[in-house]
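Predict the holo structure. Ligand: zinc ion.
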Amino acid sequence: MPKLPQYASGIPHNRLVEITCRGNCNCGRIAKIAETKDSEGGTVIDTKGYAECLFCGYRATDFSNWRRI
Ligand SMILES: [Zn+2]
């Protein structure tokens, strides 16, 4: 597995994806998939929600373009 950049450290790996950040970065960045509540009140990773750029906070909603890392 490639070494994660410093700004992505400390995030559970199953929530990380690589996105094309169209916010301040305007380049490929590591992002954190948002969590949501399931019908029983538990927390699940929302793979069809948004992923937030860990560098600038941009929210990518084009989940078909996310790349698992
Ligand atoms: Zn960004």
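Strands lie at 16-20, 28-33, 35-37, 43-45, 51-53, 59-60, 67-68. The chain has one domain: 6-68.
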